[in-house]
Structure prediction request, 298 residues.
Amino acid sequence: MTKKNSPWATVYMALVLVLLYLPILVVVLFSFNSNPGRTANFQFEGFSLQWYKQLLDPVTGYGAPLRTSLLVAFWSVLVSAILGTLGAIGLVRKPVRKSLLGRAGNVGLTLGEQVAVLPIMIPEIILGIALMALFVLLGVPFGMMTLVLSHVVFCVPYIFITVRGRLASLDPGLEEAARDLGATPLKVLTSVTLPLALPAIISGCLLAFAMSMDDFVISFFVNGPQTNTLPLKIYSSVKVGVPPHVNALCTLMLATVFLVVAISQLWQAGAHKRQEHRDKAGRVKKLAAKMLTKPTKS
Prediction:
Protein backbone atom coordinates (compact mmCIF):
# COMPACT_ATOMS: atom_id res chain seq x y z
CA MET A 1 0.00 0.00 0.00
CA THR A 2 1.51 3.28 -1.10
CA LYS A 3 0.98 6.48 0.83
CA LYS A 4 -0.28 9.40 -1.21
CA ASN A 5 1.52 12.69 -0.87
CA SER A 6 -0.41 15.61 0.55
CA PRO A 7 -1.29 18.35 -1.97
CA TRP A 8 0.36 20.81 0.41
CA ALA A 9 3.68 19.05 -0.20
CA THR A 10 3.42 19.86 -3.91
CA VAL A 11 2.52 23.47 -3.14
CA TYR A 12 5.44 23.73 -0.73
CA MET A 13 7.95 22.34 -3.26
CA ALA A 14 6.59 24.63 -5.98
CA LEU A 15 6.99 27.64 -3.67
CA VAL A 16 10.55 26.65 -2.81
CA LEU A 17 11.48 26.24 -6.48
CA VAL A 18 9.94 29.62 -7.35
CA LEU A 19 11.86 31.36 -4.58
CA LEU A 20 15.09 29.69 -5.69
CA TYR A 21 14.89 30.16 -9.44
CA LEU A 22 12.77 33.28 -9.92
CA PRO A 23 15.67 35.67 -9.10
CA ILE A 24 17.86 33.78 -11.58
CA LEU A 25 15.22 34.07 -14.29
CA VAL A 26 14.89 37.80 -13.59
CA VAL A 27 18.65 38.27 -13.94
CA VAL A 28 18.68 36.36 -17.23
CA LEU A 29 15.70 38.31 -18.57
CA PHE A 30 17.12 41.75 -17.75
CA SER A 31 20.49 40.84 -19.26
CA PHE A 32 18.73 41.23 -22.64
CA ASN A 33 17.09 44.55 -21.74
CA SER A 34 17.51 47.30 -24.34
CA ASN A 35 17.02 50.08 -21.76
CA PRO A 36 20.29 52.07 -21.79
CA GLY A 37 19.66 54.00 -18.57
CA ARG A 38 20.32 53.23 -14.94
CA THR A 39 16.76 51.91 -14.64
CA ALA A 40 17.66 48.99 -16.91
CA ASN A 41 17.23 46.60 -13.98
CA PHE A 42 13.68 47.82 -13.26
CA GLN A 43 12.10 48.75 -16.59
CA PHE A 44 12.19 46.21 -19.41
CA GLU A 45 11.89 47.89 -22.83
CA GLY A 46 12.82 45.13 -25.26
CA PHE A 47 15.41 42.54 -26.19
CA SER A 48 18.97 43.53 -27.04
CA LEU A 49 22.50 42.10 -26.86
CA GLN A 50 24.18 45.43 -26.13
CA TRP A 51 25.24 44.47 -22.60
CA TYR A 52 26.91 41.32 -23.85
CA LYS A 53 28.80 43.35 -26.45
CA GLN A 54 30.01 45.81 -23.80
CA LEU A 55 30.88 43.11 -21.29
CA LEU A 56 34.57 43.00 -22.25
CA ASP A 57 34.96 46.74 -22.71
CA PRO A 58 38.43 47.76 -21.38
CA VAL A 59 36.95 50.66 -19.36
CA THR A 60 33.47 49.70 -18.19
CA GLY A 61 33.60 45.96 -18.84
CA TYR A 62 34.63 43.02 -16.69
CA GLY A 63 37.16 41.28 -18.91
CA ALA A 64 40.32 42.19 -16.94
CA PRO A 65 38.83 41.47 -13.48
CA LEU A 66 37.47 38.16 -14.77
CA ARG A 67 40.91 37.12 -16.05
CA THR A 68 42.46 38.11 -12.72
CA SER A 69 39.91 36.06 -10.77
CA LEU A 70 40.45 33.06 -13.02
CA LEU A 71 44.23 33.27 -12.62
CA VAL A 72 44.00 33.63 -8.84
CA ALA A 73 41.54 30.72 -8.63
CA PHE A 74 43.67 28.50 -10.89
CA TRP A 75 46.94 28.96 -8.98
CA SER A 76 45.20 28.83 -5.62
CA VAL A 77 43.46 25.55 -6.44
CA LEU A 78 46.65 24.07 -7.93
CA VAL A 79 48.72 24.79 -4.81
CA SER A 80 45.85 23.83 -2.49
CA ALA A 81 45.33 20.52 -4.30
CA ILE A 82 48.96 19.54 -3.72
CA LEU A 83 49.03 20.63 -0.09
CA GLY A 84 45.57 19.33 0.81
CA THR A 85 46.00 15.95 -0.90
CA LEU A 86 49.44 15.22 0.54
CA GLY A 87 48.33 16.41 3.97
CA ALA A 88 45.27 14.17 3.93
CA ILE A 89 47.32 11.16 2.81
CA GLY A 90 49.92 11.76 5.51
CA LEU A 91 47.38 12.15 8.31
CA VAL A 92 45.06 9.30 7.32
CA ARG A 93 47.87 6.83 6.62
CA LYS A 94 49.97 7.78 9.65
CA PRO A 95 51.61 4.76 11.35
CA VAL A 96 50.39 3.69 14.78
CA ARG A 97 53.21 4.01 17.29
CA LYS A 98 52.95 2.75 20.86
CA SER A 99 56.05 4.40 22.27
CA LEU A 100 55.81 7.58 24.30
CA LEU A 101 57.51 9.62 21.57
CA GLY A 102 55.28 8.05 18.94
CA ARG A 103 52.16 8.91 20.93
CA ALA A 104 53.34 12.49 21.27
CA GLY A 105 53.85 12.59 17.51
CA ASN A 106 50.34 11.25 16.91
CA VAL A 107 48.92 13.92 19.21
CA GLY A 108 50.82 16.56 17.24
CA LEU A 109 49.44 15.22 13.96
CA THR A 110 45.91 15.28 15.38
CA LEU A 111 46.36 18.90 16.44
CA GLY A 112 47.74 19.67 12.98
CA GLU A 113 44.63 18.12 11.46
CA GLN A 114 42.41 20.41 13.52
CA VAL A 115 44.50 23.45 12.61
CA ALA A 116 44.25 22.56 8.91
CA VAL A 117 40.46 23.01 8.91
CA LEU A 118 40.54 26.11 11.13
CA PRO A 119 40.49 28.71 8.29
CA ILE A 120 36.97 27.73 7.20
CA MET A 121 35.70 28.15 10.77
CA ILE A 122 37.22 31.60 11.34
CA PRO A 123 35.08 34.56 10.19
CA GLU A 124 36.35 35.86 6.87
CA ILE A 125 36.77 39.44 8.07
CA ILE A 126 39.04 38.30 10.91
CA LEU A 127 41.04 36.08 8.57
CA GLY A 128 41.37 38.90 6.05
CA ILE A 129 42.62 41.38 8.67
CA ALA A 130 45.07 38.80 10.04
CA LEU A 131 46.49 38.07 6.58
CA MET A 132 46.78 41.77 5.81
CA ALA A 133 48.69 42.36 9.05
CA LEU A 134 50.96 39.39 8.31
CA PHE A 135 51.85 40.64 4.83
CA VAL A 136 52.52 44.13 6.17
CA LEU A 137 54.75 42.67 8.89
CA LEU A 138 56.70 40.58 6.37
CA GLY A 139 56.93 43.44 3.89
CA VAL A 140 55.22 41.52 1.08
CA PRO A 141 53.82 43.91 -1.56
CA PHE A 142 50.08 43.57 -2.11
CA GLY A 143 49.14 42.14 -5.47
CA MET A 144 48.76 38.85 -7.23
CA MET A 145 51.04 36.98 -4.80
CA THR A 146 49.15 38.06 -1.70
CA LEU A 147 45.84 37.19 -3.36
CA VAL A 148 47.01 33.69 -4.29
CA LEU A 149 48.55 33.01 -0.87
CA SER A 150 45.43 34.24 0.92
CA HIS A 151 43.15 32.11 -1.25
CA VAL A 152 45.34 29.08 -0.64
CA VAL A 153 44.76 29.51 3.10
CA PHE A 154 41.01 28.95 2.85
CA CYS A 155 41.07 26.62 -0.17
CA VAL A 156 43.28 23.95 1.41
CA PRO A 157 40.69 22.86 4.02
CA TYR A 158 38.03 22.10 1.39
CA ILE A 159 40.34 19.75 -0.51
CA PHE A 160 41.81 18.32 2.69
CA ILE A 161 38.40 17.42 4.13
CA THR A 162 37.08 15.76 0.96
CA VAL A 163 40.25 13.75 0.34
CA ARG A 164 40.51 12.72 3.98
CA GLY A 165 36.93 11.41 3.93
CA ARG A 166 37.62 9.44 0.76
CA LEU A 167 40.83 7.89 2.08
CA ALA A 168 39.24 7.01 5.42
CA SER A 169 36.62 4.91 3.59
CA LEU A 170 39.19 2.99 1.51
CA ASP A 171 40.62 -0.35 2.49
CA PRO A 172 44.28 0.10 3.53
CA GLY A 173 44.83 -3.52 2.51
CA LEU A 174 44.99 -2.37 -1.13
CA GLU A 175 48.11 -0.35 -0.44
CA GLU A 176 49.56 -3.12 1.72
CA ALA A 177 49.01 -5.63 -1.09
CA ALA A 178 50.84 -3.35 -3.52
CA ARG A 179 53.77 -3.07 -1.12
CA ASP A 180 53.82 -6.85 -0.62
CA LEU A 181 54.11 -7.24 -4.41
CA GLY A 182 57.26 -5.11 -4.40
CA ALA A 183 55.92 -1.66 -5.20
CA THR A 184 57.89 1.27 -3.83
CA PRO A 185 56.11 3.91 -1.67
CA LEU A 186 56.11 6.31 -4.62
CA LYS A 187 54.64 3.64 -6.89
CA VAL A 188 51.93 2.87 -4.33
CA LEU A 189 51.11 6.57 -4.10
CA THR A 190 50.87 7.13 -7.87
CA SER A 191 49.32 3.80 -8.85
CA VAL A 192 46.96 3.02 -5.97
CA THR A 193 46.32 5.89 -3.58
CA LEU A 194 45.97 8.83 -5.96
CA PRO A 195 43.73 7.04 -8.53
CA LEU A 196 41.39 5.92 -5.74
CA ALA A 197 41.31 9.42 -4.24
CA LEU A 198 40.94 11.18 -7.62
CA PRO A 199 37.13 11.71 -7.42
CA ALA A 200 37.50 13.39 -4.03
CA ILE A 201 40.40 15.50 -5.29
CA ILE A 202 38.36 16.71 -8.26
CA SER A 203 35.34 17.47 -6.03
CA GLY A 204 37.48 19.40 -3.57
CA CYS A 205 39.17 21.35 -6.37
CA LEU A 206 35.83 22.35 -7.90
CA LEU A 207 34.55 23.49 -4.52
CA ALA A 208 37.74 25.42 -3.81
CA PHE A 209 37.61 27.01 -7.28
CA ALA A 210 34.05 28.20 -6.66
CA MET A 211 34.97 29.61 -3.24
CA SER A 212 37.99 31.42 -4.69
CA MET A 213 35.97 32.96 -7.53
CA ASP A 214 33.29 34.04 -5.06
CA ASP A 215 35.55 35.50 -2.36
CA PHE A 216 35.23 39.19 -1.63
CA VAL A 217 36.02 39.86 2.04
CA ILE A 218 39.54 38.39 2.18
CA SER A 219 40.42 39.75 -1.29
CA PHE A 220 39.32 43.21 -0.17
CA PHE A 221 42.04 43.28 2.52
CA VAL A 222 44.92 41.78 0.52
CA ASN A 223 44.22 43.25 -2.91
CA GLY A 224 46.87 45.44 -4.54
CA PRO A 225 46.56 48.63 -6.61
CA GLN A 226 47.35 46.80 -9.86
CA THR A 227 45.01 43.84 -9.32
CA ASN A 228 41.24 43.80 -9.20
CA THR A 229 39.19 40.64 -8.88
CA LEU A 230 35.70 40.20 -10.25
CA PRO A 231 33.83 40.46 -6.90
CA LEU A 232 35.75 43.66 -6.07
CA LYS A 233 34.93 45.13 -9.49
CA ILE A 234 31.23 44.31 -9.09
CA TYR A 235 31.21 45.81 -5.58
CA SER A 236 32.75 49.05 -6.80
CA SER A 237 30.24 49.17 -9.67
CA VAL A 238 27.07 48.69 -7.60
CA LYS A 239 27.78 51.69 -5.35
CA VAL A 240 25.84 53.87 -7.80
CA GLY A 241 23.37 51.20 -8.89
CA VAL A 242 23.65 47.72 -10.34
CA PRO A 243 24.98 48.07 -13.93
CA PRO A 244 23.27 45.92 -16.57
CA HIS A 245 26.66 44.38 -17.41
CA VAL A 246 26.38 42.39 -14.17
CA ASN A 247 23.22 40.68 -15.43
CA ALA A 248 24.96 39.67 -18.65
CA LEU A 249 27.99 38.40 -16.74
CA CYS A 250 25.84 36.40 -14.33
CA THR A 251 23.91 34.89 -17.24
CA LEU A 252 27.12 33.74 -18.94
CA MET A 253 28.47 32.26 -15.69
CA LEU A 254 25.19 30.43 -15.05
CA ALA A 255 25.21 29.08 -18.59
CA THR A 256 28.79 27.87 -18.12
CA VAL A 257 27.92 26.12 -14.86
CA PHE A 258 24.85 24.44 -16.37
CA LEU A 259 26.90 23.34 -19.38
CA VAL A 260 29.62 21.82 -17.18
CA VAL A 261 27.01 20.01 -15.07
CA ALA A 262 25.25 18.69 -18.16
CA ILE A 263 28.51 17.42 -19.67
CA SER A 264 29.40 15.78 -16.35
CA GLN A 265 26.02 14.05 -16.13
CA LEU A 266 26.25 12.82 -19.72
CA TRP A 267 29.78 11.53 -19.13
CA GLN A 268 28.71 9.70 -15.97
CA ALA A 269 25.69 8.20 -17.73
CA GLY A 270 27.91 7.05 -20.60
CA ALA A 271 30.46 5.56 -18.21
CA HIS A 272 27.68 3.72 -16.36
CA LYS A 273 26.34 2.28 -19.63
CA ARG A 274 29.82 1.24 -20.75
CA GLN A 275 30.37 -0.49 -17.42
CA GLU A 276 27.05 -2.32 -17.79
CA HIS A 277 28.03 -3.46 -21.30
CA ARG A 278 31.40 -4.70 -20.02
CA ASP A 279 29.74 -6.57 -17.15
CA LYS A 280 27.21 -8.10 -19.53
CA ALA A 281 29.94 -9.14 -21.96
CA GLY A 282 31.90 -10.67 -19.09
CA ARG A 283 28.90 -12.70 -17.95
CA VAL A 284 28.31 -13.89 -21.52
CA LYS A 285 31.95 -14.99 -21.84
CA LYS A 286 31.82 -16.86 -18.54
CA LEU A 287 28.60 -18.61 -19.57
CA ALA A 288 30.08 -19.55 -22.94
CA ALA A 289 33.22 -20.87 -21.27
CA LYS A 290 31.16 -23.01 -18.90
CA MET A 291 29.12 -24.41 -21.79
CA LEU A 292 32.28 -25.27 -23.74
CA THR A 293 33.97 -26.95 -20.78
CA LYS A 294 30.85 -28.83 -19.64
CA PRO A 295 31.33 -32.58 -20.28
CA THR A 296 28.82 -34.14 -22.67
CA LYS A 297 27.07 -37.40 -21.84
CA SER A 298 27.98 -40.33 -24.13
About this structure: The mean pLDDT is 82.
